[in-house]
Amino acid sequence: MANKFEEKDFSNEGLNLGVWKKIAGLFKPFYKKLAVLIVLQIVIAFSDVLMPYLNKISIDNFASGNGSDEELMTFIIIYLLIIVLIGIINFIYFRVAGKVEMGFAYYLREKCFKRLQSLSFSYYDVTPTGWLLARLTSDIARLAEVLAWSMVDLAWGIPLMIFSGIIMFSTNAVLALLILIVVPLLAYVSYIMQKLSLKAYRGVRKANSKITNSFSEGINGARTTKTLVLEEYNYADFKEDTKEMYNVSVKAAKIGGTFRPLVNFISSLTLALIIWIGGGLANSGIIGFGTLMMFIQYAQQFYEPIRSISMIMTDFQIAQASGERIIYLLESEPSINDTPEVIAKYGTIFEPKTQNYEAIKGDISFKNVTFEYIKGETILKDFSLDIKSGQTIALVGETGSGKSTIVNLICRFYEPCSGELLIDGIDYRKRSIGWLHSKLGYVLQAPHLFSGTIMDNVRLGRLDASDEEVYEACKLVNAHDFIMKFEDGYNTDVGEGGSRLSTGQKQLISFARAVLANPSIFVLDEATSSIDTETERIIQFAIENIMKDKTSLVVAHRLSTIVNADRILVIQKGQIVEDGTHETLIALKGYYYRLYTNQFNEEQNSKLMGGYDYGL
Ligand SMILES: Nc1ncnc2c1ncn2[C@@H]1O[C@H](COP(=O)(O)OP(=O)(O)OP(=O)(O)O)[C@@H](O)[C@H]1O
Ligand SMILES: [Mg+2]
């Protein structure tokens, strides 16, 4: 699907200190644990250096029979103690690092989720779900992994090289130099290899991102795909993406496959050199065999940090890219925001100061409102409208004429680009979004239910409602009967997004939800379009009852819902072209008159033909 969303390019090569500062800020709650990890790594590095040295002592002193039995016993005890200690330290290390990894990922997910909850409708208009899912899953996992494991590896590698360097030089400078001399070459080769594999990795990530998006579209659009028989077409697309993924992955593997043996070859060569020269020295008695043994072990150990450091550098770059994306998400500002003054008085969505919420009377006024979803495409221009509290306003008009836009603006899902929207005479931006939404009941054409029971879903309208109040609300909108027909009644699981219920049933439940909330402003956007005419007739009375002393906006195609409205507005291209009661508009013989007579005739015909409902 064509999408206006363009991902910012995060793959800048160098180190970006600004990003790391922000990542460090996010990581703050874990600083103490990080310090523990670093200390443990230094201890582990020290013990890794100590072991070959102890081996040297054992060979040089005891294998040749020089030491006394007593000395041997002491040595064995110390040796065993050190081994046990290393075991314990490693155990603690793995536990703490695992905790940091999981804890940080959890912490970030919570933060991102909270941010996603507060972002406005317009953000979701342009951001693909796949992109968001990738941020919440793989990017967070990767960043947490690198911070918990790779970064602390540095705290092991550097002390290890320093400690073993000191011991080597103080034991035998020639052999020490021999080991050291290869370091620049190895570092260079590893650096090149990491650079190439990083490049390949970026390709893999890009391909992966595409595949995630295909998956998410494939799953979300599964039903549409089936009805349009697009399987073949989608599959061809997907196959191309996976093929690209395959190619770049193979390329990445090839790079690893070429360089790793090269690095191993160089270090093995040095090892051979050490054995050759060191062997000569040992033979002529200049050094002991234990010392030779120690150097062989050090040679193997010494290059490990070089390999891991270049790997860590790659990890850092990967983490940087992931971190940058996460920060980008966390810093996405809702385009609809309360000002600091408003927040000071009314609190935030997450911490509202409900004691400061004023009651809503329900007067609504549009004052010269201009609105566009996309720059340059004006939907409403200089739009003005006054609605008195307690009135029921019906909006009719062709598809795309702007009815939903008008109610979306009232709900503050979007804000006017210019002009003002007053509620009870005050610009609604002077009070909080939470305040408005706490007094607003909104029922949509495609209502969303959350996984859980019917009871849970209705109760979302007012979390402290009792079971009895939920039953009352459901009875009022005529949902009680169909709910009781389910085996589990109110405890029936609605499935993900309410998928186990029909659209009409979902609408009735979201109706009950709105009724329970007892709002001052009621917005029904095509809310009864999927309810059959019989049920609609039954709940019509309930709707009118609920709306009696509330300001209500009803967008409807079925005229039976709107003939009783106090005022009917006909909207065309974002403008009010007719405005009046049912009788005055009929008398006007304009758009509304034609709409009504057409539909009336259709209804009469359908009755004659056996009650077939056109659903209009
Ligand atoms: N999220 C959006 N992003 C961009 N343009 C949009 C968006 N939503 C609506 N529009 C455009 O705004 C115009 C008015 O749409 P609106 O949804 O208000 O119409 P409507 O009268 O409710 O139509 P319907 O009867 O089909 O529900 C249309 O031209 C539509 O293409
Ligand atoms: Mg609409």
CATH 4th-level superfamily of one domain = ABC transporter type 1, transmembrane domain
- Strand line-up of the largest beta sheet: 6-7-8-3-9-10
Low-confidence stretches: 610-616
% residues in beta strands: 5-15%
CATH topology of one domain: ABC transporter transmembrane region fold
Computed Rg:
35 Å
Number of helices: 20
* Bound ligands, named by name, code or SMILES: adenosine-5'-triphosphate, magnesium ion
Name the CATH architecture of one domain: Up-down Bundle
Spell out the helices and strands N to C. Answer: HHHHHHHHHHHEEEHEEHEHHHHEHEEEHH
Q: How does this structure look, described?
A:
It is a single chain. This protein has 616 residues and is α/β, with parallel strands linked by helices. The protein has a domain at 30-330: ABC transporter type 1, transmembrane domain (ABC transporter transmembrane region fold), CATH 1.20.1560. The chain has a 6-stranded mixed beta sheet with strand order 6-7-8-3-9-10, sandwiched between helices. 63% of the residues lie in helices and 10% in strands. The site of magnesium ion has 3 residues, from helix 12.
